[in-house]
Amino acid sequence: MRIDGHWVHDFNPYAIPFPAGWPLGGIRWYGIAYLLGFLWVRWMFSIYARRGRLPLTVQQMDSLLFHGIAGVLIGGRLGYVFLYEFGNFLRDPLEIFCIWHGGMASHGGFLGVAIALWLWSQKQSISLAILGDALVSAVPMGFFLGRIANFINGELYGRATTAPWGIIFPHANGLLLPRHPSQLYEAILEGLVLLCLVQWKFWRGKEGRPGQLVGYFFIAYSLLRCLGEIFREPDAPMIFFLSRGQFYSLFLLFAGLILYHCKRLRGGGL
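User: That's the sequence. What structure does it adopt?
Assistant: C-alpha cells below.
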C-alpha cells in the first residue's frame, strides 16, 4: 500500500504466528534476530580460537556465550526500564518482568555483558581484555540484526521527512507522515560500518595491547549512534538538547576515550 507515493509499513512482527488464544502471539522476528546474533558471536569465537586469537576451548566458548546471553538479556531489560521507563516502573514494579511487552536498551546490555564477562574471566583466570577485544569485534552483527528487527516491528521510527524514500509507519503517533527509516540507517551505521571497522582493527591489532579495541569500539559505537539518532524520532523525553540514546552514548564515549588512551600508553591486559 502506498500513500502519496510513500510505502506504508505493513510487516508482520511475527515470523511464526501462533493460533488465536495461544500465549505470546507467536515467535517474533526480534527474538530470531537475537538468536542469530548469539550464534554469529559463537561462530566468530570458533574462528578466533582456530587462528590462535582466542585461547578458549569449545566448552569455555559455550560457557562464555551463556554468560554473555544472560548479561545481554538482564542488562538490556534493566537498562530499558531504568533509563527509559523509570516512571512506569515506579507505578508498576512488576512491569520489569513483562519482557513480552518489549523493551531492551543497548547501553544497559553493555553494562550487563561487562559484568558477566568480568565474573566469568575471574572464574576462569583468563584476561578480561582479550575476551573483550574478541567480543566487541563480533557483536556489531547483532546490532545490525536487531535494527532490522526494529524496522520489521515498525518501532523506533524516524523523524518526519520529505525525502522520496520516506516510509509511513501507521503506528507513529497516529500521524500518517513519511518518516526516515532510521532503523535501517542505524543498522548500517551501528551494524555494518562498525563491524567493518572493528574487524579491520582486530585482525591488524598490535600484540601486547589487549583491551585497546574495546575502547575503540566504545568510541566508534558512540559516534555512529549519535549520528543515527539525528534521524530518529525520540522515544523518550530529551535530556537538554540530546535524545536519550545520544546522552547515554556520551558516557560510553568518555569511557572509550579513557580506555583507549590508557591502553595505548601502557599496553598490557587486565
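The chain is about 60% helix and 5% strand.
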